[in-house]
Amino acid sequence: MNRQEDGFYRLRDDIKNNKLKTGLSKNKIISEYYSPVFSYLRDKDKNITKVLVYRHPTEYFSSELIYLFFDRRNRLTAWQLFEPPDLSVL
User: Fold this and answer.
1) What is the pTM of this model?
2) Residues 79, 20 contacting (CB under 8 angstroms)
């Protein structure tokens, strides 16, 4: 679990500091940031896209969510970082 937590924080920081670059292979991403908590295939306009989802391994509702998008060659094309919801307003 410590490796996943470390990988998540490094990935989040690399995104926030503009250090993550498109074109990286899916295998390179996993070797750098470890396994995602979830992955799935997305079919859009006949372009099968792999999506890797990262979040803190134990903070289910208070963690940022990171979506990494890969093309059919398993190259990183884009990412999205979502801040956790503000649960104090509930």
Assistant:
1) 0.88
2) yes
Contacts for 78 with CB less than 8 Å, ≥ 6 apart: 22, 68, 69
Q: Find the DSSP H helices in the chain.
A: 2-16, 26-33
Euclidean distance between CA atoms 48 and 24, whole angstroms: 17
What's the pLDDT tens digit per position in 32-70?
A: 999 999 999 987 766 768 999 999 989 888 899 999 999
Question: Cα 78 to the chain's mean position, in Å?
Answer: 10
Cβ partners under 8 Å of residue 4, min gap 6: 34, 35, 37, 57
What letter represents residue 57's amino acid?
A: P
